[in-house]
């Protein structure tokens, strides 16, 4: 292996490492309710603000129906208008966004504070000044990270794709790559499959090249080409691998950006003050979604939101008022329709219910260890489709 | 990139080689079984299939807009340097019906501008629109494929569109080489400062600083750190537009100490926390570098010109800021290379006593420098806040409201002042070994 520089082994994903709880959430929530009352007293003002929002932004508006059905005890102020507008005035000089008015008008100030805390806690960037900008950038750029449809080119089927992804998961574990690399690799694979013609014999090569490119973008330690060839039983020569690398890069137009669902998951989980077990369960479900072809059409934030919701249903932890409030705020991150969230949850639930019987079990095994709190062995997983009104697969 | 050779191999970083080999072996078998069952893979590709793979590769993808231009048979301009290595001229230059972006025949290279760590840069001209371009020809390491620095740079720059970030026009790939086509910039800040020794005009410094911070604020809000700020990486156009370049290290998880040719990367612009081995890189890293460049522009000489090593570099910094203690910098003693006993205790000094030029300028200049060169990373001002610093109050207000892609020189009245000293100006004929640089202006 060669390295890309000196390694710092900072664990980006170690969510609970620097867990110092902020002020109790109820304080936030209460102040929020007060503000809501105050603002709503001057009703017409609010009305006019809402009125001038263009219709195309309505998709960003948060919806709460599922959470409410889950027993949410309070609704909270949709906006902290004054605060947001002051900020707006300050920030305007810098970053005039082209196109529709910014998200800042729509996302509650409370959420903003929470997101800032979450992002800096996760070490996604160490400077809180930019946390909100980064979050907005993630929200915007994720729109470019979905594929128009879930069709696979001709010779490939769900199964072949799943086997390939499963194998990539194993390779990724052997090399001890970060999870970001895996998500990026699968994303590159999804795109490359549509852009590059490969025969069925070249599929494994394509997969490995996607992983290799993802590693080059994200990792400090790179595997050697010969190691990769060895892993493929030297079916392909080094030369073939390097040639494929160029084809893929050129096919992807050097665009290796991906807005990771994992980051959305961790941010949301951090805001929602999720328990360790909850987070691991959600990460397991999210990683299972890599194997599912249908999931490529959904937004990263939707995938993350669906994984967290489903994990919450499965674990059925006793709700606490603080927790409920936090969850309520956090769930405003998932955008898009409830129907989309529900269908992702259904896909994930089905995948989770039969994970242990499938041939592609790398993810199942990965999440059955003590470090991951044995989440994949959780007994309720088998009944997961039942929670969503689906019949459980017979095993 | 390059610093891979001498480093320990992958296996030493992980479990014992035996276990490693075991798990590799298992994985290999498991995979091959699964793939074979599906008929995904044949043991060995026959010659025909290899040919087929080749065939698929042939058509050159062109993702940039194609301009149909009159069919041209142009001799390549005289050139001492040849990115193709002097061979296969005929092969490379197969004339097509039009000149296209993404095509090597669309650019002529004129002269070599410099040799980077992973690429050689040529000045070139676009035959599509006649614009000057900079051609960055990537050294292909045949063993490990396309260098990761090139991959990072291209994938980052593709997402960045800003007046103070260098623009990536095009990517050309041929069988042998990979070339990035950048907009051409006449010079860089290092050359500019050589040309105008003794410190730059204070107004020009303000314009350069504003643009530098504007660029930084843009990339920082996109979760990108530059990590390698230095005057050589700040390109300057004849108008005075400043652009950040060389993103090869941006966002990589670490900063290398050695380049490909084992030449030591300059430590002058590196903050004390990183010098002491902190790996908590943050936007403050770039701000320190920008602060050093600020002082250098005003003063005409580097702020902390360490010569030999990290120790000397830290010494330079401590003589200005004072040796930190656990009281003045909570947590400093946890840094791996914190060795206060190596240094004589010294007190922090006023910036204006260290850098005399600051004493001649209004206080807010010193104040901004001070806020950028704070010892503790968390205390350093962010690029966004720095743009609002009173130091920039004298600039025309519309500068604060420009769109990302608009250069500050579009604002009426904003232009570079003539520098007080110019070693190439005809007024003072100086014999200088740097004379060839004159062609840049």
From TrEMBL, chain A:
> Pfam families annotated for this entry?
Cyclin_C (PF02984), Cyclin_N (PF00134)
Where do the Cyclin C-terminal domain residues begin and end? 259-381
Q: Which SUPFAM superfamilies match?
A: Cyclin-like (SSF47954)
Q: Which InterPro entries match?
A: Cyclin, Cyclin-like_dom, Cyclin-like_sf, Cyclin_C-dom, Cyclin_N
Q: Where is the Cyclin-like domain?
A: 166-250, 263-350
- Gene3D superfamilies (alphabetical): Cyclin-like
The name of this protein is Cyclin N-terminal domain containing 2
Automatic annotation (TrEMBL), chain B:
* Comp. bias intervals (Polar residues): 1-14
Q: SUPFAM superfamilies under this entry?
A: Protein kinase-like (PK-like)
Q: Which reaction does it catalyse?
A: L-threonyl-[protein] + ATP = O-phospho-L-threonyl-[protein] + ADP + H(+); L-seryl-[protein] + ATP = O-phospho-L-seryl-[protein] + ADP + H(+)
Looking at its record, which EC class is this enzyme? Answer: transferase
UniProt xrefs under Pfam families: Pkinase
SMART domains documented for this protein: S_TKc
| Enzyme Commission code(s) on record | 2.7.11.22
This protein's GO cellular component annotations are: cytosol; nucleus
Domain Protein kinase as annotated: residue spans? 107-392
Q: Name the residues that bind ATP.
A: 136
| InterPro entries linked | CDK, Kinase-like_dom_sf, Prot_kinase_dom, Protein_kinase_ATP_BS, Ser/Thr_kinase_AS
Q: Which Gene3D superfamilies match?
A: Phosphorylase Kinase, domain 1, Transferase(Phosphotransferase) domain 1
A single GO molecular-function term is:
cyclin-dependent protein serine/threonine kinase activity
Ranges for region Disordered: 1-24
Keyword list (alphabetical) reads:
ATP-binding, Kinase, Nucleotide-binding, Serine/threonine-protein kinase, Transferase
- Family, per entry: Belongs to the protein kinase superfamily. CMGC Ser/Thr protein kinase family. CDC2/CDKX subfamily.
Q: What is this protein called?
A: cyclin-dependent kinase
């Amino acid at each position: 292996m060669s390295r890309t520089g000196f390694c710092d082994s900072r664990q980006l994903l170690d969510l609970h490492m620097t867990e110092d709880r902020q002020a109790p959430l109820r304080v936030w929530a209460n102040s929020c309710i007060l503000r809501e009352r105050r603002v709503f007293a001057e009703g017409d003002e609010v009305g006019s603000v809402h009125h001038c929002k263009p219709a195309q932004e309505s998709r960003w508006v948060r919806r709460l129906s599922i959470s409410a059905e889950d027993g949410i005890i309070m609704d909270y102020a949709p906006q902290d208008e004054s605060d947001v507008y002051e900020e707006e005035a300050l920030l305007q000089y810098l970053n005039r966004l082209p196109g529709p008015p910014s998200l800042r008008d729509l996302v509650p100030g409370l959420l903003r504070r929470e997101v800032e805390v979450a992002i800096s806690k996760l070490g996604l960037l160490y400077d809180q000044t930019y946390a909100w900008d980064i979050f907005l950038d993630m929200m915007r750029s994720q729109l470019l990270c979905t594929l128009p449809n879930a069709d696979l080119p001709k010779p490939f089927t769900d199964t072949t794709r799943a086997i390939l992804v499963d194998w990539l998961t194993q390779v990724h574990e052997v090399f001890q790559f970060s999870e970001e690399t895996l998500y990026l690799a699968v994303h590159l694979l999804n795109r490359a499959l549509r852009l590059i013609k490969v025969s069925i014999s070249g599929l494994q090569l394509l997969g490995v090249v996607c992983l290799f490119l993802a590693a080059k973008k994200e990792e400090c330690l790179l595997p050697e080409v010969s190691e990769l060839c060895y892993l493929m039983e030297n079916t392909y020569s080094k030369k073939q691998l390097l040639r494929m690398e160029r084809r893929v890069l050129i096919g992807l137009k050097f665009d290796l950006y991906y807005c990771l669902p994992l980051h959305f998951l961790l941010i949301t989980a951090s805001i929602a003050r999720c328990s360790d077990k909850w987070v691991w369960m959600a990460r397991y479900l999210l990683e299972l979604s890599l194997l599912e072809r249908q999931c490529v059409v959904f937004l990263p934030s939707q995938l993350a939101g669906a994984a967290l919701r489903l994990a919450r249903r499965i674990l059925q932890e006793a709700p606490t008022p603080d927790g409920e409030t936090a969850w309520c705020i956090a769930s405003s991150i998932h955008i898009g329709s409830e129907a989309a969230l529900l269908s992702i949850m259904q896909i994930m639930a089905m995948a989770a219910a039969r994970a242990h019987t499938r041939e592609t079990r790398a993810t199942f095994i990965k999440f059955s260890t003590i470090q991951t709190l044995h989440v994949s062995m959780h007994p309720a997983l088998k009944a997961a489709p039942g929670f969503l009104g689906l019949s459980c697969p017979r095993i | 990139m390059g610093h891979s050779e001498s480093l320990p191999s992958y296996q030493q970083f992980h479990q014992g080689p035996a276990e490693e080999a075991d798990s590799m072996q298992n994985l290999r078998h498991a995979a091959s079984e699964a793939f074979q069952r599906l008929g995904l893979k044949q043991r060995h590709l026959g010659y025909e299939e290899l040919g087929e793979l080749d065939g698929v590769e042939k058509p050159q993808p062109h993702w940039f807009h194609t301009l149909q231009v009159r069919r041209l048979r142009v001799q390549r301009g005289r050139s001492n340097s040849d990115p193709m290595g002097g061979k296969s001229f005929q092969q490379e230059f197969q004339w097509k019906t039009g000149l296209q972006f993404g095509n090597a025949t669309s650019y002529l290279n004129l002269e070599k501008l410099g040799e980077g760590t992973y690429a050689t840069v040529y000045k070139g001209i676009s035959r599509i629109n006649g614009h000057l371009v900079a051609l960055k020809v990537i050294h292909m390491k045949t063993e490990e494929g396309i260098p990761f620095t090139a991959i990072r740079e291209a994938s980052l720059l593709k997402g960045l569109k800003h007046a103070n970030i260098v623009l990536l026009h095009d990517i050309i790939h041929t069988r042998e080489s990979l070339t990035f086509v950048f907009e051409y910039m006449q010079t860089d800040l290092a050359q500019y400062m050589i040309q105008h020794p003794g410190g730059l005009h204070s107004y020009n410094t303000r314009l350069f600083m504003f643009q530098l911070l504007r660029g930084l604020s843009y990339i920082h809000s996109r979760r990108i750190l530059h990590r390698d700020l230095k005057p050589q990486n700040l390109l300057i156009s004849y108008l005075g537009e400043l652009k950040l370049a060389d993103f090869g290290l941006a966002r990589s998880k670490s900063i290398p100490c050695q380049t490909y040719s084992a030449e030591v990367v300059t430590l002058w612009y590196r903050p004390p926390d990183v010098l002491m081995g902190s790996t908590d890189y943050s936007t403050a890293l770039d701000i320190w570098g920008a602060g050093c460049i600020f002082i250098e522009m005003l003063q005409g000489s580097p702020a902390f010109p360490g010569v030999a090593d990290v120790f000397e570099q830290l010494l330079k910094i401590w003589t200005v800021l004072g040796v930190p203690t656990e009281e003045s910098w909570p947590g400093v003693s946890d840094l791996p290379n914190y060795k206060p006993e190596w240094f004589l205790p010294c007190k922090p000094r006023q910036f204006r006593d260290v850098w005399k030029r600051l004493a001649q300028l209004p206080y807010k200049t010193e104040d901004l420098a001070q806020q950028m060169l704070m010892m503790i990373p968390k205390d350093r001002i962010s690029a966004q806040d720095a743009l609002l610093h009173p130091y920039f109050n004298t600039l025309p207000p519309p500068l604060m409201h420009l769109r990302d892609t608009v250069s500050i020189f579009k604002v009426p009245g904003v232009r570079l002042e003539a520098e007080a000293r110019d070693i190439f100006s005809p007024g003072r004929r100086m014999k200088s070994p740097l004379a060839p640089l004159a062609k840049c202006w």
